[in-house]
């Protein structure tokens, strides 16, 4: 089943919004952990960002594979 341009655009907007949200939330949790628990080290922020990017990639991959 092929998507119309409007459907594909809405789907892409949803995926981009979800990805930005996941990465931002993970970075925020990493920042909070860094400030509270790890005496302002940078690695919790980097790890949090990595988890966010990984989760976003997995969601995009699942969405594309399920609807192909």
TrEMBL record:
Function: Component of the MICOS complex, a large protein complex of the mitochondrial inner membrane that plays crucial roles in the maintenance of crista junctions, inner membrane architecture, and formation of contact sites to the outer membrane.
GO CC terms in record: MICOS complex
Sorted UniProt keywords: Membrane, Mitochondrion, Mitochondrion inner membrane, Transmembrane, Transmembrane helix
Pfam families recorded: DUF543 (PF04418)
Protein name, as recorded: MICOS complex subunit MIC10
TM spans (from-to): 20-38
Family the UniProt entry places it in: Belongs to the MICOS complex subunit Mic10 family.
Lineage, broadest ranks: Eukaryota, Metazoa, Ecdysozoa, Arthropoda, Hexapoda
Naturally occurring in which organism (per UniProt): Frankliniella fusca
